[in-house]
Structure formats: structure tokens, C-alpha cells
Amino acid sequence: MNNKQNRLAELKRLISDKKMSSQDDLLEELSGLGYNLTQATLSRDLKEIRTGKMYDPEKGSIYVLREEITSSETDKIPELSINSIHAVEFSYTLVLIKTGTGFASSTAMFIDRAGRPEFAGTIAGDDTILLIPHEKFTRRKVQDTLNNILPGIREKFSH
User: What is the CATH number of the domain that holds 40?
Assistant: First the structure.
């Protein structure tokens, strides 16, 4: 394996084995293992290995490997994600969901995994989700479906 492959393997191991909540923590751990890299390189590495953030009662939020999220962990997301959702609004047929920093990815992943026919899919940034509903469903149906997936989200809709 080359240096990058070794670094990515170590990064995956750190995220799997420890509750890492910040890039600074990851940089420090990697430095201790002999990998000196910039924050920009670490950001690219985190995207390449497909990480997200998930709520953790001890650390607030931690990095997770999307491939390792089990069904028991995704079962916890609705209760926790609703606390990180700040606002939901419609723009024509699209739905914009504002979350706390770092929570958009895991919340969008949960919405996608629900596999509801009302939704074509999501696009997530750091703190914003664009939910794309299928056109044949009304706003009311989209709201009801979101509330079934994430109980309590109805109160977050702007009127």
C-alpha cells in the first residue's frame, strides 16, 4: 500500500475505534502515527472515505463511516435528528431543511434510507438538506411523510 492508502486505512480505524468529534482531534491522532497533513487534505480524505457525523451523548457529534452505520444506530437517528433540525421550508415543490452544523449528512441519509416513494432523494451540505419530492405528492403529504420519519418535524415548518 502507498502512503495515502495507509493514511486512509488509519483514518478509518480511528473513526471506527474512537469517538472523534473534530478534525483537530483527527489531525492530532494522525500526527502521533507519523502522518503530517493539512486540514484541507484531511477534509478531502474524510470525503473520500465517506464519513458523516452522528449525534453522540458524550461528545455532541462524532465522525462515522457511512458503511458502518448499523440499523440499530439508524433507529436512534430520528429522535436525535429532530433536535438538530432548526427549520423546514418549502420553495415551490422543493423542501429546504436547516440543521445544526455537521448534522445534515446523517439526517439526509436517514431520510433516504426510509425509502419513501414521496421522495426522489436528498442533497446534503454541512447544515442544509435539499429534499426533492416527487411532483405528484402534495405539500401536506410531504409534511406528513417527513413527520412519520422524523416525529416532531411538523413544528419546524415555517408557515
Answer: 1.10.10.10
Q: For 135, which DSSP code?
A: T
**pLDDT tens figures, 122-151:** 999 989 999 999 999 999 999 999 988 888
State whether 51 and 105 are in the same domain.
no
Provide the domain limits for residue 39.
Answer: 3-68
Give the 3-state secondary structure of residue 66.
Answer: helix
Q: What is the pTM of this model?
A: 0.56
Rounded Cα gap, residues 88 and 40, in angstroms: 31
Q: What's the domain count of the chain?
A: 2
CA distance 96 to 98: 7
